[in-house]
Amino acid sequence: MSFPGPQSTSSWKPLLKQRFEGALDLVFPRACRSCELPLGEKSPHSGMTAWLCGKCLDEIDKIERPYCEVCGEPFSGPMTTAFRCSNCEGRRLAFDFAISGYKAQGPLRELIHLFKYGKDLSLRGVLAAALIKSLADARLEETDLSEWLLVPVPLHFFREMRREFNQSWELCQELSASTGISAVKVLRRTRQTSAQAKLHRNQRLENLRGVFALRHSLPWSRRPDLQGRKILLVDDVLTTGATAHECAKILKRDAGAEKVVVITAARG
Questions:
Q1: Helix/strand/coil for 85
Q2: Most-buried pick from 104, 129, 134, 188 (CB within 10 A)?
């Protein structure tokens, strides 16, 4: 797996950045974003350890094999071959597969809640670090991700106005800044829907049917051509996969995308 990395026009910029971060740590010591304990001057400035202390990281379960080859649902047990979970068996999902770095529990679940509903945009960094963990999936190892696009799951216009931001787009921009993968808005919601968290699986599917469409091209904002492109569909949490399925369906059927892989910071 490879991606372009942050854009840098000079070889001395990484060193300057390192020294600046070190000086900043002396003036404004970093603290764990979950428990607020000091991280220490030698704590890394990238990855999950740049944001969370060892104790809080231990309370978050990484998602590792075995897991469903379609939705990424983790399982325990001595499974040695690829398999589909009972929720995916027999379903024709539009996305190729979904991957998450961690389970939505403990400190990570709380941070997602604070980011999404508490409007703490400073938490973009730790959740983007969780997203990068998902890019380490074996199925992406031989892939040049510089050829892919990051696409956020959209919010309805009025809901985004009330929340003041779209959490998926914020994560896309943060991930793009750290990896160099381009991020674009190409999807829109055509109507408001009931909150997915309150619905069962079949209700979620019905609630989202026909709710997504491609964004309109405007003279000052042209929608990029997705014909034959590979897409990383970005969201904060994956639960049943209903939202991801509907988005991927539009990206493939209406935009002509070749492949859609769903990446989320956590798996519900």
A1: coil
A2: 134
